[in-house]
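User: Good morning. I'm curious how nicotinamide-adenine-dinucleotide would be positioned relative to this chain. Could you predict the structure with it bound?
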Amino acid sequence: MRFVHESMAQRVAFGAGQATELVIAELEGILASRPLLIAGTAAESLAATIAQRVPDARIWRQVVQHVPVEVAELARTAAADAAADAIVSIGGGSATGLAKAVALTTGLPIIAVPTTYAGSEATDVWGLTEDGHKRTGTDPRVLPRTVVYDSALTASLPAELRIASGFNALAHCVDALWAPRANPINTAAALEGARALRVALPDVVAHPQDVDAQDGCLYGSYLSGVAFASAGSGMHHKICHVLGGTLNLPHAATHAVVLPYVLAYNSPGAGRQTPRLASALGAQHGESALTALQTLRDELAAPRSLGDLGMTEDDIPAVLPEILRSIPTSNPVPVTERSVAGLLRAAIRGNHPAIEEDV
Ligand code: NAD
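Assistant: Good morning! Here's the predicted structure, ligand included:
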């Protein structure tokens, strides 16, 4: 073995029904008394409870997907006006993303309380959207100091969002297998994350109040974020990033649709990672990883086509050049304009991922 691995320094506090106590303990631990509480719509009640216990806390409610730069500026001003000494983000990846945007310019520590499976809380990746273009970067200041996982907060997730978000987490695991900094350690996190999600997702969709299933999904999504942060963005994330930023497609559902197309594309070049993934995904009788993923998609009725999300074949020329520029040269299967256009066309139509579309 020959590799370099860097672990990110982060505390994780896990406890169903414990979010208020865990957040307050973390704030006390860093001597913060004036947190800006960034709370998306599903996070109102927890934010209000924390604010009752921390009188100088200020609640920020405007959370927008893909973090428009104007919203980031407003939140930064609110943090400065309140002389905030910490940020607590409660919500999905959009709330975490806004907290990161504030931390990027202020250096304030983040305590992240995720309510979806986006995994952003485990990464040092930030994103900001300006004039229809999403910029991303990495910065140690945006890595949350602590993640508080309270799976009870995910009980309210609507099934559609839960499934899409679960596939977003699975996508972090799958793409990590061939991302530029893939190594045996982040591969272990990715495969265990995929295994945990494969087990827990169907359970939590069938029984949204099942605490073991809720915990299993958050455990899997944390590992997925760890793997993604460590291994970097592969072909799948590069495609979804451009589609999200340019066409404003819904983040998690876009990942759910694109994942099997990228898996089908890269499997032939991914060596022994593909059978390992198949096994993590519960493949039976020598099935491929793609078949195992397709079985899960069918079981959960996951989103199937980019066309359903609003993308048309006329959009391909607007996204193709940027996608081609951004896919890592280390991708296990070389990409061409024709092959990526074919992949997009198949994903727009929702055709079987193993069948390449001619352009
Ligand atoms: P989101 O945060 O936009 O949430 C989607 C919707 O679900 C919102 O309406 C929200 O209010 C609602 N919601 C959230 N939690 C809920 C709950 N428990 N119950 C009911 N409703 C709830 O979506 P997301 O998929 O979590 O995050 C997407 C964003 O995260 C994108 O901008 C994406 O780029 C970013 N992201 C960043 C990283 C990173 O490493 N930087 C990783 C993953 C995702």
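Strands lie at 11-14, 35-39, 58-60, 86-91, 110-114, 125-130, 133-138, 146-149. The pocket of nicotinamide-adenine-dinucleotide is lined by residues 40-42, 65-66, 91-95, 97, 115-116, 118-120, 123, 125, 127, 153-154, 156-157, 161, 165, 168, 251-252 (CB under 6 Å).
Let me know if you'd like a different ligand tried.
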